[in-house]
Fold each of these.
Amino acid sequence: MQYTIHSGQGKTKNHFTLGLDTDWQTIGDFKNLNLGGAKEGAKASDADIYQRGMGVYFLDRVELNSQWNVMFDLRYDNIHNELTDKMKQPTDLSGSADFSKPTGRIGLSYNPKSNFGLYTSWGQGFMPPATEELANNPAHLGGFNTNLKPATSYGEEIGIRGNAQKRFFYDVAFFHLATRDDFGRYRVPGRSLETFYQNAGDSRRYGIETAGTWYPVDPLVVRFTYTYSDFKYTNVKSLWGTFQDVWMPNSPRNLAWVDVEYTLRSKLFFGFDSNMVSRAYVDATNTGYAWGYGLFNPRLGYRWSSDKVSGDIMISARNAFGKFYIAFTEPDPDGNSYQPGPTSEWFISARIFLGGK
């Protein structure tokens, strides 16, 4: 639910929003003993998990004049998890886990010209343990992992955006994020085939995000994005030991994407996009890594329209040259850390819109 009030006259205007988010679900959760070799044993736990989340927030955006805008918001979240143990063997592991926290954000923007602006903001984050993290209990076969606490963060952003003669549009932002009590995997003696979760450590992240659109001539459009990420654990407890000041796994430092499309007489169009990723480490040891890659994705299509019906048909491909690459990595003690992406994929699509142009 959300309610917004607009007020003010002349150059100064105020936009105040009050809102409520709520959701809930019930999960039937049971586990069998993992005997290895794709074999499972007797039932180890059987429980019902009820979850409810609620967030209350207000947001206020003030237009001081045509150039200055101020924004701030406050939010309070409360998450309730409740487990009912249906086996109660050898003991009743029923229990609950509740997490709550207020967070806030403030921002400022300045637009000295209609085609140029600057903006900055500071905000907080709050991430409670997920269901899988809670329901994998290292102390018992069943019940909640009561050692987990929420991860928290705060960060800043500052950027510029604008356009040049409505031919080139750009947005460039520098960001910083500091986190506390990030989640990570670990294992315990005697249950080596199971994965558990802990508050593994803290991190600091710096980066630059850029996006642009260029119209060199009317039938041609070029779009691009680039992100540089300097993400490090300041300290972390992992499956391979405790480390300080190491690169975060599965976090490539360079991500780029470019898309080019040319339209012939507003009907036939062809183009391509390409996404490029630099190498990324697999785990906190910063030894094993996945190589970077670039994928080429062409497309060819035709658009048509009449007074009552319009549509398009397109042939496209992803990874047209069949590049072998690792789509993502994960710190897995079983050695299955490298997850390959698909080779060439080809698609034919058609769309019809009723109602004409």
Note: The domain at 2-217 is CATH 2.40.170.20 (Maltoporin; Chain A).
Amino acid sequence: MTITQWRRSELGYCSNVHPAETFAKLADVIQQPIHKVKLARGLDQMATGLWISADAATAIVSDPHTHEYFSSLLTGHKVTLVTLNGFPYGDFHSERVKENAYLPDWHDPRRYQYSCNLASLLAHNLDPQQHEGTISTVPLGYRPEWSSDKHEQALAQICQLANFLQQLKQETGKHIRVCFEMEPGCVLEQTHETVNFFTNDLPAAARTHKLDELHIHNHLGLCYDVCHQAVMFENAADSLKSLTNASITIGKIQISSALHIERPAEAKEVLSAYIEPRYLHQVRCRTQNNTVHGTMDLSEALTNGTMPTDVPWRVHFHIPIHAQVLDDEHLSTTQQENCAVFDFLAAHPEVRPHLEVETYTWQVLPGSFQVDNDNTLIKGIHAELHWVEEQLNKRGLLTQL
């Protein structure tokens, strides 16, 4: 069996860890932290999972001079574009993000236009060595605010997107795939829901809107965030197998770890340090009857008394992936799920997604992981990428070429 391999230069990290809500800030991110991480790794060039906000994307695609400058920044700093994060629409580093991270959702025309803008600029700047570019996006929307009407509107827009991506390929010769990223608390949060979405909802919508179903298969896929599915107590290997068996293309895998609490009754005090006002930290547990139960935020889990404390909890709080030991013995991580993903890739060479580290929470982490300057952050990101290289190398997945 031929093993699929990745080059070190193909492994990147998601730049949503850096504030970049404007084009000027995005340009600074390319010239400063991304470039510095590349140098720290001893690489001449490096792929990036670039986060481009809606405002920055509009600035690039609407003005030829800005687009030319953007392309020159990538070329000049030898940053290759292979995948984009199209999940956060606006300011991902505001004082309070929480459930606003999912807005606009897929029933809103702004989400469609944003995705088209990203696809266009990715097609025109895609690394020539890549046969396909990927864009991760919202898993339809926030579940508490979803409805059947929104679902139908979302399906219509997604069909329109697939048609746009097909036309973009005909115009540019570049293949772009938009990948839905499951997340706890969203419409698509579990693997079986995603399988149903791809095998039932989307084909039915394609027939309704007279879209060739092949466009769905060719231009839509999944972004598998390891942290998210670990929070849902899903086994990574089983989940990935179910997705591939359903002929769903896994375009991107975001390598990430969640917070695991084996004995929550003894850890409530230390867990309170992870309550912070910016991001949503969904909590899940698996009860004795194998049902997944949870709350939408950690503060709620610690105060409302509805979460069982006699079974382990998992928290959607991205922990640096190389971390094996945390500040308190009651806390650990789901790092082993990342290892399970690498094992799956070693056993399934036909699956070759883009790989990126996604720990966007460095600035809000408590305790010893806190970063107080850019150099500390760059060292942390470098350590994460080094850990990924070690894990891939152990499994024969890293080429030295």
Note: The radius of gyration is 20 Å.
Amino acid sequence: MADIDLVRHGQDEDNLEGILNGHRDRPLTDLGRQQARTLAGKLNGSGVQVVYASPLRRAYETAAIIAEALGLAVQVDQDLIERDFGVLTGQPVASILDLPADQVLHTEGVNYFLEAEGSEDFPTLYARAGRVLTRMHEKHPKGHVLLVAHGDIGKMVRAVYYGWDWKAGLMTPYLDNTGVLELRAASGIVG
């Protein structure tokens, strides 16, 4: 399989305001655009051959800034969209702690809700991440692929790649805005 770099989008307006965004489609902030430009400079000369992005504006805009700097085009992959947060969409991040304790997973850096009305559960998100990696393997058996996505789907892509279950994937380090995960035989978080 190709080398894969998975990037979380730059800061968007919801990130700035401490809001759970999920499928909300708000743009990058000025800082988010600068983060994308900075990352593009770091990726210049890295050998990235193709760029895929979530259809949500924050990820697509991040990908477009990077792709332009690399002389590439952005391809949208619908399965890279962030987890649907259901009724928690648009709520303050702190509202996760108002849920029953058995519906919250506490990790270093972030708390995850496991259930909320209308939300996508992690086993479903994990399966979607598997579809992304299957497509990447089929389309790009060699080379260097850049995926620009979101926190929760990014953790599930990493979990599937390494053969971990979804819960183990959530327990891995949090990926900051424009953080990069190098998915290789031996890798870690860079950026």
Note: Strands lie at 3-8, 50-53, 74-76, 104-106, 111-113, 144-149, 180-183, 189-190.
